[in-house]
Amino acid sequence: MTDYRVINRANWDERVSAHVASPDYMVQRFIDDPAYLSDVVRFDLPRLGDIGGLRGVHLQCHIGTDTVSLARLGAAMTGLDFSAPAVAAARELAAAAGADVAFAEAEVYDAPDVLARGRFDLVYTGIGALCWLPDVRRWAGVVAALLRPGGRLFIRDGHPLLLAVDHAPGDRGLVLSKPYFEQAEPCLSDWDGTYVRTDAVFANTVTHWWNHGLGEIVTALLDAGMAITGLAEHDSVPWCAIGGMMERADDGEWRLAHAPARIPLTYTIQAIKRR
Predict the structure, then answer these.
(1) Eight-state DSSP code of residue 56
(2) Tens digits of per-residue pLDDT, 216-228?
(3) Of the ranges 133-147, 213-227, 237-251, which one carries the lowest mean pLDDT score?
(4) Is a pLDDT exceeding 90 seen at residue 173?
């Protein structure tokens, strides 16, 4: 079977130029307004707190909008992504926006060897990241390896319950149709679109992805030597995750239009590396 990384990298590589041009990523706003922050990072602010002076790494940073936002909050940031076009776009954005951010091209699982172990005060992982990794325990080991003792993890991502549901056509119902727990074999998607507005037509439409239950994520972090300091579940998500059932609020987040308290759509986990 073709390596999942080859398949997924082709998908992400092709989408970079469309994402840079999409009004949803607001690339020109970053360049024009030195105080501008991404919607994702602005949502994180109440829990993220003061990160001024911290050495931070953003895993799976894509085109760097969230990475630049974290740098604008005072952190010395490094972004890492496995897509060469994404890393190139992130470097161009940082340079044009006047942000002092370093970027590295590498797989997440290789991050401790590429970026050095025990170097960082903060590991940040944003929306839509963990589902592309087959082994959440291995990811937790990467986080612990990157952090200094007492260093901190901040992750907000799509809730595993959201990733397990589909819209039941013709009504307001949601159906559980995909695994909630991590499986050895990936889920396969074949979608010619993307999660932001664009007229681009894509050729690399297949992706491999995995769900990871919330308990699996927390347990993996605990077993990797992390102490959980915060866990929150949210009724919103930064993209229209369930077509035809969501509405966008003023904060840029999407919520279920009918009975939004039914399921969590994202979660935030905070943890520190035990000394």
Answers:
(1) E
(2) 999 999 999 999 9
(3) 237-251
(4) no
84-97 and 4-21 are packed helices; what angle lies between their axes, rounded to 10 degrees? 30
Count the neighbouring beta carbons within 10 Å of the beta carbon of residue 99: 19
Going from the C-alpha of 6 to that of each of 2, 61, 132, 206, the distances in angstroms are: 7, 18, 12, 11
Terminal-residue alpha carbon distance, the chain: 41
How far is residue 68's CA from residue 63's CA, in Å, rounded to a whole number? 10
Average pLDDT of the chain, as a whole number: 96
Confidence check: pLDDT of 1 > 60: no
Task: Count CB neighbours of 143 within 10 A.
Answer: 27
Residue 126's pLDDT is: 93
Say how far apart CA 197 and CA 78 lie, in whole Å. 27
pLDDT at position 214 is: 98
Dist CA 215 CA 218 (whole Å): 5
Residue 145 to residue 21: CA distance in whole angstroms: 35
Dump the DSSP string for 130-186.
Answer: GGG-S-HHHHHHHHHHHEEEEEEEEEEEE-HHHHHEEE-TTSS-EEE-S-SS--SSP
Q: Would the pLDDT of 170 be above 70?
A: no
The pTM of this model reads 0.96
Q: Which residues contact 100 (CB under 8 A, 6 or more apart)?
A: 71, 76, 94
Q: Which option is the CATH number for 4-273: 3.20.190.10, 1.10.3210.10, 3.40.50.150, 3.30.70.100?
A: 3.40.50.150
What are the domain boundaries of the chain?
4-273
Predicted local distance difference test score (pLDDT) of residue 72: 98
User: DSSP 3-state assignment of 68?
Assistant: helix
